[in-house]
Design a protein that fits this description.
The chain has 455 residues and is of the alpha/beta class. It folds into four domains: 141 residues, Methylthiotransferase, N-terminal domain (Rossmann fold, 3-Layer(aba) Sandwich), CATH 3.40.50.12160; 112 residues, Transcription Regulator spoIIAA (2-Layer Sandwich), CATH 3.30.750.210; 120 residues, Transcription Regulator spoIIAA (2-Layer Sandwich), CATH 3.30.750; 59 residues, OB fold (Dihydrolipoamide Acetyltransferase, E2P) (Beta Barrel), CATH 2.40.50.140. Helices cover 35% and strands 22% of the residues. The protein contains 13 helices and 19 strands. It has a six-stranded parallel β-sheet, with helices on both faces. The protein has a five-stranded mixed barrel with strand order 15-16-17-19-18. Strand 16 and strand 17 form a beta hairpin. Helix 1 packs parallel to helix 5 and helix 8 packs parallel to helix 9. The chain starts with a helix and ends with a strand. The relative contact order is 0.08. The chain binds S-adenosylmethionine, iron/sulfur cluster and FE3-S4 cluster (F3S). FE3-S4 cluster (F3S) binds next to helix 2 and helix 6.
Length: 455
């Protein structure tokens, strides 16, 4: 990571000691949100305080996602709406960071078509943000760094969004090249952090009172494989489980091709590891999985699910699904519906396939129209609703330990949180419970949450 001391001193010289406000908006996955927290850490060093109100901000950073076209369109819409803001306040610095910037055609488009944007900073060049801001303050019309030289992973300071839930990236990038996915192109190859650095970070967070630690990577199961003699992911989980303190460990995502028995045994044997697994399947058809380059079949996936459920028949699973992959037939889609009914997920995150230029799937012929894809999506959600309304009933009568994360948006006088199984639990309570664990006796179940009374 760069030493920015001199640059920051110069910025302070130009801006003086008065208050300066920054607004950082992160989109996309939790890894990107974590990058946003590091950007804030860097800005804090530069004397910025933070606001959610763009109109009050002297600096706005949009930390973007490129995974689907809709995510990119949303950012372009927001950038467009900032044109007026910039006219009203010419001193405003508007910056674009995140995965969109890693596609050269997008970086070009931003530079050409959106003159209100002052700087573009790539995901691997975040530590040059102070230099880019300095360039803007010194009168440059446009500053850009999208080079690849560091991961910014051991950033000294982060401004975390929550005081009780913390994300800890354990690795960056992805080697899997699923044919639909842009991530390997915008985030590069897999790079694992050193286990001792991760453990030290978690120890620090637990000491500060954090109650939930979310370990992040695009495929956490291949953690450590790029480090000679490295610690494996199950070993890392066990080491973090041994850290003294009252906290829960979550992780995502887990690629099914690498979800080993050892990993599953570790989940069951470590008391602090959440009793839930997010196991993205993407499709219930082995043919589609082959076209997606997922490198497992439906039978192999079901074998893994079978091993989990042989240890606990009611174990909580969630998944990601893509609807309308190029030339997905009605029969192949039906196999996805069958799989969802067979596995009984507690929740699914489903997406209509979005063509990403540069990926292999973008070259595949696709005869299915958007309306058909939309209909399949609605059918899938309907099946999942039926599955979860039935399956959630298994929690009635159980005692669940819940980390309360807010007041209920649907019911007055209720708080909401997540159980170890990653189930939303709502119960009567007030905001003083936020950030605390509560034991709740479950008395009712819906298809998106369960309800109960604090014990
Ligand atoms: N690395 C994780 C994995 O393999 O499970 C997934 C990360 S990706 C950011 C999150 C989800 O976005 C994927 O699981 C997939 O369902 C979805 N996704 C990725 N590319 C997509 C595309 N081109 N169109 C629609 N959904 C997509
Ligand atoms: Fe994308 Fe596949 Fe990598 Fe996940 S594993 S980030 S879906 S390429
Ligand atoms: Fe999006 Fe980049 Fe994450 S493309 S999903 S923000 S790694």
């Amino acid at each position: 990571m760069r030493d920015n001391t001199a640059v920051i001193a110069e910025i302070n010289n130009i801006l003086g000691s008065g208050q300066r406000l920054a607004c950082v908006r992160s989109f996309g996955c939790q890894l990107n949100v974590s990058d946003g927290e590091k950007i804030k850490g860097l800005l804090k060093k530069m004397g910025y305080s933070f606001t959610d109100d763009e109109k009050a901000a002297d600096l706005i950073i949009l930390n973007t996602c490129a995974v689907r076209e809709s995510a990119e369109d949303r950012v372009f819409g927001i950038v467009g709406s900032y044109k007026k803001l910039k006219e009203e306040k010419p001193s405003l610095i508007l910056g674009i960071a995140g995965c969109m910037t890693a596609q050269s055609h997008i970086a070009e488009k931003i530079k050409k078509s959106y003159p209100q944007v002052d700087l573009v900073v790539g995901t691997s060049a975040l530590s040059s943000l102070p230099s880019l801001i300095l360039e803007c303050l010194s009168g440059s019309r446009f500053a850009q760094d999208i080079s690849e030289y560091d991961d910014f992973s051991e950033a000294a300071e982060q401004v975390r969004e929550s005081t009780f839930k913390a994300s800890v990236p354990i690795m960056f990038g992805c080697n899997n090249f699923c044919t639909y996915c842009i991530v390997p192109y915008v985030r590069g190859r897999e790079r694992s952090r050193q286990a001792q650095d991760i453990i030290a970070e978690v120890e620090g967070l637990v000491k500060q009172g954090y109650k939930e630690i979310m370990l992040l990577g695009q495929n956490v199961n291949s953690y450590g494989k790029d480090i000679h003699g490295g610690v494996s992911f199950p070993e890392l989980l066990r080491a973090i489980n041994d850290i003294p303190g009252d906290f829960i460990i979550r992780f995502m995502s887990s690629h099914p091709k690498d979800a080993s028995k050892e990993l599953i045994d570790t989940i069951f044997e470590c008391d602090k590891v959440a009793k839930h697994l997010h196991l993205p399947v993407q499709s219930g058809s082995s043919d589609v999985l082959a076209r997606m380059n997922r490198r497992y079949t439906v039978d192999k996936y079901l074998e893994t699910v079978g091993y989990i459920r042989s240890r606990d028949p009611e174990f909580s699973l969630t998944t990601d699904l893509i609807v309308g992959f190029p030339n997905e037939t009605e029969e192949e889609f039906q196999q996805t519906l069958d799989l969802v009914q067979k596995v009984k997920y507690d929740n699914i995150y489903s997406f209509i396939y979005s063509k990403r230029s540069g990926t292999k799937a973008a070259e595949m012929p696709d005869a299915i129209d958007e309306e058909e894809k939309g209909q399949r999506m609605r059918r899938l959600l309907e099946v999942q609703r039926e599955v979860s309304s039935e399956f959630y009933k298994r929690f009635i009568g159980r005692n669940m330990r819940v980390l309360v994360d807010g007041v209920s948006k649907k019911r007055e006088g209720y708080v909401s949180g997540k159980s170890s199984e990653f189930i939303i639990v709502e119960f009567p309570g007030d905001s003083s419970l936020i950030g605390q664990f509560a034991d709740v006796k479950i008395t009712g179940a819906m298809n998106w949450a369960v309800t109960g009374e604090q014990i």
